[in-house]
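Researcher: Last one for today. Full complex below.
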Amino acid sequence: MSFISSEKIPNNVNLSSDRKLQRALEEWQPNFLDWWMEMGPDGFQKDQIYLRTAVSVDEGGWANFGYVRMPEYRWGIFLTPAEANRTIHFGDNIGAPAWNEVPGEYRKELRRIIVTQADTEPASVEQQRRLGYTAPSLYDLRNLFQVNVEEGRHLWAMVYLLHSFFGKDGREEAEDLLKRRSGNPDSPRILEAFNKPMEDWLSFFCFTMFTDRDGKYQLGALAESAFDPLARSTRFMLTEEAHHLFVGETGVGRIIERTAQLMKKDPNEDARAQGGIPLDLIQRYINYWYSTSLDLFGGEDSSNAATYFSQGLKGRFGESSDKRYPNHREIDTIYELEAPVEGGARLEKQAIPTRRAMNAVLRDSYTQDCQRAVDRWNKILQDNGVKVEIRLPSQRFNREIGLYADLPIDPAGNLISREAFNAQKASWLPSEADRQFLKSLMNKPVHEPGKFANWIAPPKRGIENLPVDFEYVRFEPR
Amino acid sequence: MGETNQTFERINFETSPERYRHIKLEINGPAATIKLNIQEEGGMREGYQLKLNSYDLGVDIELADAVQRLRFEHPEVTAVLVTSAQEGIFSAGANIFMLGSSAHAFKVNFCKYTNETRLSIEDATANSGQTYIAALNGIASGGGYELPLACEKIYLIEDRRSAVALPEVPYLGVLPGTGGLTRVVDKRKVRKDRADIFCTLAEGIKGKKAVEWGLVDEVFPSSRFWQEVEARVKQIAGAGRPDRKGVKLTPLQPELREDGIHYRHVKLLLGPTPRTARLEITGPAEIPAMPSDPSQLGADWYPLRVFREMDDALLHLRFNHPEIGLVLVSVKGDSDKVLQLDAQLQEHRKHWFVNEVLLFIRRTLKRMDYTAKSFFAIIDQGTCFAGTMLELALASDRAYMLDAKDVTIALSEFNGGAYPMGNGLTRIQTRFLNDADHAAAVAKLRGKLDAAEAEKQGLVTAAFDDIDWEDEIRLAVEERASMSPDALTGMEASLRFAGPETLETKIFGRLSAWQNWIFQRPNAVGEKGALTLYGRPERPEFDWRRT
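Model: Here's the assembly. Have a good evening.
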């Protein structure tokens, strides 16, 4: 019982009187710490990081700041407070009371949804574990670790659901979450995007911008769920997720800002010559991470998506609040999209039942959100006098899942010949040369407070209104 | 003909000779006679007449009761003659208008029940020393020939008129599904091509040819038919067993309450999860000493009483609770007492009454195997799944065990062979088909097994401690209750009977499955289907494509 106390594990789920949860956590918690030491951020576990910790669901309770060594971080379990008499508000069970327990008939679907979501949380920590060695500033290093510990907490949030509502199977699934390893061919993470290595900070910022934003939309869809503990758990996770997206959007934005400055400085407007990251390379990384993240939403035409919606397990983003969705049943409605026909020879407008298109509907919301960030980046370029613009590629570009998987489609969304695609691929997607260039640029960390690597601009302000040159990480003597 | 919208009327499965309407049971020393004299106006429900000794479920309930009572109440009897009280007709089989107007589920359960009755006739011949003999004093057609097929001998009157026939295929576009097809080739070993002709020849086969083809054993002309039959019955019966004193099967008289059916040792409770029932069985309270003649223990003796209640409950489940898909089985009591009782039964199993009780338990367990419901055994506090009662857990599709102190299961001698399934194997052999050595070793296990040991030996599906127990059971129950009832029925019927085929598994697994498929097909039950149009002037129209 030594590990398991409400002091060490802040929570609002009555851990101290929940024998079942205590027992499950007694086994799981030491394994989690072993996993964190083995697969968490490499090289910085003894240092003091200025982190925020969620200690309650009260206003402000989710953001307590202070120095902490990461292995001593207090990973907690929080659900947004329950709404009285909540009812199911979409699908076939509209009006029925929301479920406080998993109905046996939806057990396998819910378990699959939760395990898939949960698996992404430790996976991203594993992907990012060596980035600390090349951090462009203490501010960024601290943000990396903040993202990492909160992904860890999101794992706890999902494991809480598995432990509390799925019995023995749930405990086994929770153990497996600590056994899979990002990129390990024998025991890979469930979703492919989470098996790709993350070797540089441009990738990290793109990941937190685009891939974590998929997370925002998945969590948002689950926050509508008829399974109330899942809805409440994901709602609380969303408050933390916002910071990750902030890290991503401003990270890419600060690189773009710096690139614009260096372009002005250079007689040929060549940022690369000035030790910066050229815009075309940034565009290629955006193309790659955006399209890879689109795959995470699943197929455009999906019977699973229809099942999840009709059963009330997963809604649309803002299902209960967004005026775009007046129809919460979507029985006889359709969704139109350009689909490949004649074995991928051309694209043609096709209609699929809306319920089957729920992945595409969620993806559309996501794309609009990404576009808003891209507009802000373009404003930075404009403000710095650069005429070039960043563009989101078409949703059809570079897809490995769904209707457009493996089709030769250009960033504008046109179906082109395989030859033409291959010829231009290197100008659309990151190449080995790009990776080598970034590696050469990001070859050592910047550890002096207030200093930043040459390829990135400092942020406008620091964390929690602290100065930018605050000592966000205190290193133990090496 | 179409399905009528049948109003829900509880079917009662208890009857007794003084209440029979359709059959007459006569005892004459070592020989008994069951005479079919089916009352045209005596159908179980409106809408059909039981002409030409055709039968419905009501008739078969009487027949099953007679077979059962002969074993327990008339153990002195060694030969049972089955014949008809109606001139020129033995039986025209199951009533077609009744079948045509029945809901699918009823048809299926009706066929299952009649098949079980015929198997119990063969069981009596093989294991109770009561040889069944059919004297066909007139036409025996369809189910009217399938009943004689379950008898050890078939004698047919030779009057240039009376024949045996299986006209279902040519007349009705369905099968002789009460074991007819199977017994013709598997039991009477009629050559395949002859059987093919016989089963497509509506008018049937009579006289010498019927003997030559093996469809009947002997034919006798009208003038000396009864004389010859009687001589043979006398010879088969021999002296009988006058020393045996029968045991009267007293009525069970269960109490019907709001929450279900309450017997003395068994409760069948409905809910609380929708489509779910609980079969709660109470173990033996006290074990009386074995009297010098065990039959003095009578019908109230626990092992007989509890399985009669169980048998009745299974029939109620099948016919009166079609919406129940999952049955949670529990046995509460003292497992030492169950084991003590098993030891007593084992010691005296050579006595006819003890033997009859064991045979009856075996048939009831088979009835459970053949019931189209999911069974989960729930082994928790106070459980006494031991020996004979453990068979209920082994017969279940899954067994969940609480991992806690004092929750144990145990085996007895009987788990190793007293209650073979329809496939001829014990439930333990069937369970461990991949490892005969393990099956043999498990059957020899003695003493109490806790959850960990039971799980290790493969005797339970899963063990959960008290923290998980409630949730796991709830999830398993809700999940099961949500799946397609048809798919589950097919799945269970396939998974339960691993191992060899027997006449019995062929009847329930092959003949019945095909019959139930045909019963759903337009060629039988569509607007222009053969079963629908039977007795009408129009000809059926078939969809000629084979599947």
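Residues 228-265 of chain A form the longest helix (38 residues). The CA atoms of residues 121 and 154 of chain A lie 6 Å apart.
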